[in-house]
Amino acid sequence: MASSLALVALLLASCAAAASATKYTVGDTSGWAMGADYTTWASDKKLKVGDILVFNYAGGSHTVDEVSAADYASCSASNALASDGSGATTVTLKTAGKHYFICGVAGHCSNGMKLVVDVAAASPAPEAPSTTPTTPSTTPATPASPGSSSGVTPQTPATVLAPPVKQSAGAAGLRAGAWAILGLAGLAAVQLGLF
Known about the structure:
Keywords: Glycoprotein, Metal-binding, Signal. The chain is α+β, with helices and mostly antiparallel strands. It is built from 4 helices and 9 strands, in the order αβαββαββββββα.
């Protein structure tokens, strides 16, 4: 049972991460090709960890090589961190910082087939609002006492109550989004034969 719950928690986390990832087609309709302006293409993108770059190109005619900053500057793919020439390269951005891509075919990088993207850290998921009820508090009040000869004003406690907290019955308080994620996790759990 505990392993089933752990699996459901993992499914929920992956559903949330997948829902927040954005897929970008490099070069939009131009794809990964000679003559495209990838600097302009990347200039308005707000990439974050988990986002996906899709490079579309004619397989065998180009490559997608992820390289270091120095190799990007010199258009060298000889020490590529990763390389693909299939024609449909998908790269999931796993770390924050700058990522450098070039075409490793001779002359293509120097003719503009190079892309640098700046990837921001993934933003944390928003926290759910607290449903902890507030407790009443008492604060002493000091009423004015005209004619007091001792100079000491007697204190009368006053009770200040917080507005009543609306109690929800069980899972009825869950938001619609949480229901959707739970439904996906339940569907996945059923598909995996956990229930």
